[in-house]
What does this fold into?
Amino acid sequence: MIKETSTGGRYHHGNLRAALLDSALVVLTEKGVAGFSMREAARRAGVSQSAPKYHFGDTRGLLGALATSAYQQLCDRLEGLDLTGLPVHERTQRVATQYVSFAGENRALFDLMWRMTQFDFTAPELAEQKHRALRALDHALRGEDAEPADDTDPALLPSYAVWSLVHGYATLALEGAIDSGSPDPLNSNLLPAMLTLLDMPDLP
It folds into this structure.
């Protein structure tokens, strides 16, 4: 964590990498991906402009680290749901609710996660967290005991369908493109109603 000292507004770092990620998130939240600057992140952290290069290489590396952290947070939330004994439709609803809640509470990170041209989307740790998100969603639909499936396995089609619908809805709602009749489209009854239209498999 970043701790501000009383001398010169500089920061004391117990962990420079974590401090830089914290300051980078502040810059990302304020200015968005288009206005993000690694130099500004370093300035906010009270370190030299070259300091981030040691840990992240360049701006793409820093944004990639932020995106990886975002996926980890999302996965932790999805995997932390207690879905024991629930029918598949209720499991799906709970996962969808958690997904859109994450998007609403972490809009800057949610936007960054899908900007594949802004960082190396194939970086091993980032790719693993992305696959982890799909597995969390798939487990909610097919159950914890379901056989592992390759990303191209037809068994994953329902999971891809749910992911596409929920992600698309969250994105459109955040952009103000959905008039759900609710002051908060992310928490309206529209998404649950849409999910009931999916031809969900009859799973335990």
Remarks:
- The longest strand covers residues 2-4.
- Strands lie at 2-4, 11-13.
- The two ends are 43 Å apart (CA to CA).
- The chain is about 60% helix and 5% strand.
